[in-house]
Amino acid sequence: MNLLSHIRRLPLIFAGLLLVGLLLPRPAAAQLFCVYDPLGAGGDYFSLFKDYQLAAKRWGVDIELKVYTDDAQLDTAFRAGQCDMASMIGMRARAFNMFTGTVDAPGVIENWVQLHDVMNVMASPQLARFMVSGNTEVVGMIPIGPDYMVTSNRAINSLETAKGKKVAIMAWDKTQPMMAEYFHVIPVPTDIPHYATLFNDGKVDFLTVPMALYKPLELNKGVGTQGGIVRRPLFQFTMQLVAYPDKFPPGFGQKSREFMATEADHAISLARNLESQIDSRLWVYTVHAEITAWDSGMRAALEKMTKAGYFDRRMLALLKRVRCKTDVDEPECAPSAEQTQNASHP
Which of 160, 163, 212, 218 could make an S-S bridge to 184, C-beta 3.0–4.6 Å? Predict the structure, then answer.
């Protein structure tokens, strides 16, 4: 065969190669998981999600991790479809799923035992239908830890003594202005990158954070020698995994939730370890009477915000059952008159 014949056959050869390439199975593209960690790629939470990445491979899903240190940027990227899934603080996740976002409501989880139980409950297949909302699905949840009042003055040791004081709040969270109004404090709206700056520069009297953020935000600058940390949680922070389910194979969400439940103990250990690193002299304790007033005030504020449509009553009922499992003597756990009557007349 002469050279001219070879040249004439080239288009047919290329067409054949193209057809073979189209018929051969192609490796699936990796799904992008955008991770929020204020400490970046060296942070504990980004490291935890490396284990998740390995687990996903066993489910046949290839995941690429991308870290964000600014939660607002992560939220924007996820909403724009630049991330197939994202880990975000529960207050952010509430905009996508009010049911799971209610876990971060004020006063609904009081201790580590209850928090652990909630993390297991969230992985239950019976709750799977509540994990989907609109075009997104919550595919996991881990605890970050209790949210405490960090103050510039130890005299601010209760919700009563905080009245008239300035507090930094998240500008994008509609529940925080309502909390501020209810407890008669002066809200100063901001975002996470500037949250600590207001406090450290003395422009607000206190803010609320989990201890996972105490060192990264350098809050010791604002606490100084006069401030402290009120050891009575306002609420519990969670990290929630929100995904676009159409980007993942069927059943991925449930597998993910069950895996994240197995990571709850690890995440709780991280949170407790971070608390243990706080100088014990910074903790400010309240007397029993103030604790009682604190709890009743938080529940009343929660009811007001729930009526306004910011929290899910089904989740609140579930969380009450979790509380009453460990604190059976609490007044809210006492059977109602109707329940007592029904029990005595089966």
Answer: 163
